[in-house]
Amino acid sequence: MSPPVFAAVVLVFLGLRGAAAHRAPFAFINPSKFIQHDPRVEGGLEGFKRFVAGLPADTKVNTVRIFADGDYVVAHSEFTVSAGPQLGFDIFRFENGRIVEHWDVLQPLVSREQSKNPNGEF
């Protein structure tokens, strides 16, 4: 697989909603090598499955931009969650065509009125 294919996999992975989000994304993950760096999520694929199962059904992801560099894909997204809109960056590392490592960071989305500059976060 090539970096553009990896980027497409991440777009599908982040964009799944409802029942599909509780099944399909796991096919993209290597179950024996998956390393999770998010401190809110238990390690390994089973921990990630439990985290996804606990997400509210109305959680939405709008990926604004995505970058692929070799085996790494970075996604810049807006997440709509129960805590309010969030800005997020996800980094995925691929090995043999499957996700083997994931990092992320989330922060509350700041309104333009609250921002100290006119640029916005996207």
Task: Quickly list its features.
single chain; alpha+beta; Nuclear Transport Factor 2, Chain: A; five-stranded mixed sheet; 3 helices; 5 strands; 22% helix; globular
How are the SSEs placed, and which strands pair?
Blueprint: H1 3-15, H2 18-21, E1 35-36, H3 44-53, E2 60-69, E3 72-81, E4 84-95, E5 98-108
Parallel strand pairs: 1-5
Antiparallel strand pairs: 2-3, 3-4, 4-5
Folded structure, characterized:
With 122 residues, the chain is α+β, with helices and mostly antiparallel strands. It has one domain: Roll (Nuclear Transport Factor 2, Chain: A), CATH 3.10.450.50. The chain is 22% helix and 37% strand. Strands 1-5-4-3-2 form a five-stranded mixed beta sheet. The protein is globular and about 45 Å long. It starts with a helix and ends in a 14-residue tail after the last strand.
**Individual helix count:** 3
Kindly report the spatial arrangement of strands forming the biggest sheet: 1-5-4-3-2
**How many structural domains in the coordinates?**
1
Question: What is the C-alpha radius of gyration, as a whole number of Å?
Answer: 15 Å
Percent in strands: 35-45%
> Regarding CATH, which class?
Alpha Beta
Q: Describe the largest sheet.
A: 5 strands, mixed
